[in-house]
Amino acid sequence: MDNRRAILFSAPSGSGKTTIIREILKRFDCFEFSISATSRQPRAGEADGVDYYFLSHDDFVRRVGRQEFLEWEEVYAGTCYGTLKSEIDRIWDNGHVIIFDVDVNGGMNIKKYFGDKALSLFVKPPSVEVLAARLRGRGTETEEAISKRLARSAAELGMSDRFDVTIINDDLARAVEQTEAVIKQYLAAPLD
Ligand code: ADP
Ligand code: 5GP
Fold first, then answer.
1. What dihedral do alpha carbons 98, 104, 105, 110 form, nearest 10°?
2. What single-letter DSSP state applies at residue 117?
3. Hey, what domains does the chain have and what are their CATH numbers?
4. Which ligand does the CA of 20 lie closest to?
5. Cys bridge to 145: 22, 135, 141, 182, which one at CB 3.0-4.6 A?
6. Distance from CA of residue 93 to its chain's centroid?
7. What is the 137 CA–ligand 1 centroid distance (Å)?
8. How confident is the model at residue 1 (pLDDT cuts 50, 70, 90)?
9. Per the confidence metrics, is the pTM higher than 0.85?
10. How confident is the prediction for the chain on average, in pLDDT?
């Protein structure tokens, strides 16, 4: 199999993509997670160079100027996230398939860039009410940050049809099984 491919996950924050990605990473040994850069503060338990490259806002902007990003977005007012070009080289040079966790705009940009070399997955919560409950239950954001995330979710949910596959994350085990199945099918198909 040609490993120079990517699987990308997009969804409104709180839909469960990080949870699904962790399960998928356990089930396949060909994948490596693309560590994004962000200007937000680390959450408890997050480590620099593992979950994200945590940068100051100024450093992030400097790297944008140096064209170090394949794509970047100010996902929430004042908070930027981006995919460093160096991550793609690093992971492909390791012989691994890239896993991206990016917002919906980033997902569409990456899919456009990679074309058939990427499978794009949209993770959908069963409802907006469940999404809100999951975000609050996660307990990692202030109520203000949760409101910013929920405010974006309606527009993001409206873009699910731009992705190759939608995974409804109601029952987690079922969502992971479905994700595993579509990934296997994608990886088994030869590239043109
Ligand atoms: P995202 O990465 O999309 O922001 P997370 O993976 O952090 O979302 O999930 C948000 C919260 O919802 C977490 O607390 C997680 O444990 C929980 N969660 C994820 N999937 C499910 C599910 N299918 N059922 C119940 N809770 C879930
Ligand atoms: P969080 O703060 O919850 O880790 O991430 C918030 C949002 O930013 C999520 O939708 C996540 O997918 C998105 N995100 C993380 N990294 C990137 C990236 O490199 N590019 C883009 N466009 N979005 C990202």
1. 20
2. G
3. 6-188 (3.40.50.300)
4. 1
5. 141
6. 21
7. 9
8. low
9. yes
10. 96
